[in-house]
Amino acid sequence: MEVISNLLFWVANSLLIPDIIILLVLFARSLLLIGGFYNQFMVKRQNDKKLNDKIKNLNLTSIDSLKAALPEKDNSLFIRYMRDLLTTPPSEAYCDFLISNFENEAEKDTSLSKLLAKMGPVLGLIGTLIAMSPALVGLSTGDISGMAYNMQVVFATTVVGLVVSAIGLVTLQFKQRWYAHDVNNLDYVSRILTDKQL
Predict the structure, then answer these.
(1) How far apart are CA 23 and CA 167, in angstroms?
(2) What percent of the chain stands above pLDDT 90?
(3) Does pTM top 0.90 for this prediction?
């Protein structure tokens, strides 16, 4: 039994370094996500100011003005699909296909935020539990400096994991709300366009 428990202890301790490396990679990725998210937020805010009223008051005669109001240089997901919707001869089947594709791409865009939100606490907890074991051994043997070092690792992995998770969760909430609004707008415009064909 002692051999098995020692083997288990050795395996658990060997996971600490990979866990810390993965946590640091996810932390760096979450910082890059914040930069991209801020840029996306500013572009979305600008586009919403320009387009929301035009979409809300859209009718068969104002379709060309909505098309002209789309930013030419903006290649964000919503603008790309709206441009495609307005320039392609509309049919109900194509509109449904386009909106389904938009939802798939939106899901792909939110996948990193979901990963960070879920994996941050998991990896933080793994690092916490692995480093806690040597800290308790140091406490029992009177090695205070060794215990203090291991407790630093315990708290650092927990904090980094929670920060990664918080970034993932906040960006996920915003993006889900944005994309739900965008799907609603695309659906509304597609209905106006298909009504035009009838």
Answers:
(1) 13
(2) 49
(3) no
Q: Do 157 and 26 meet the contact criterion of CB atoms below 8 Å apart?
A: no
| Contact (CB, 8 A) for 106 and 182 | yes
Indicate the average pLDDT of the chain: 87
Q: Angle CA(187)–CA(106)–CA(184) in degrees, nearest 5?
A: 20
With helix as H, strand as E and coil as C, how does the chain read?
CHHHHHHHHHHHHHCHHHHHHHHHHHHHHHHHHHHHHHHHHHHHHHHHHHHHHHHHCCCCCCHHHHHHHCCCCCCCHHHHHHHHHHHCCCCHHHHHHHHHHHHHHHHHHHHHHHHHHHHHHHHHHHHHHHHHHHHHHHHHHCCHHHHHHHHHHHHHHHHHHHHHHHHHHHHHHHHHHHHHHHHHHHHHHHHHHHHHHC
Identify the band that residue 139 occupies on the pLDDT scale cut at 50, 70 and 90: low
CA-to-CA distance for 36 and 139, rounded, in angstroms? Answer: 45
Identify whether the C-beta of residue 98 lies closer than 8 Å to the C-beta of residue 186: yes
Q: How far is CA 69 from CA 40, 41, 98, in A?
A: 19, 19, 20
Domain residue ranges in the chain: 2-197
Say which range, 8-17, 64-73, 87-96, 168-177, has the weakest mean pLDDT. Answer: 8-17
Instruction: Please state, in angstroms and rounded to a whole number, the distance separating the CA atoms of residues 175 and 106.
Output: 8
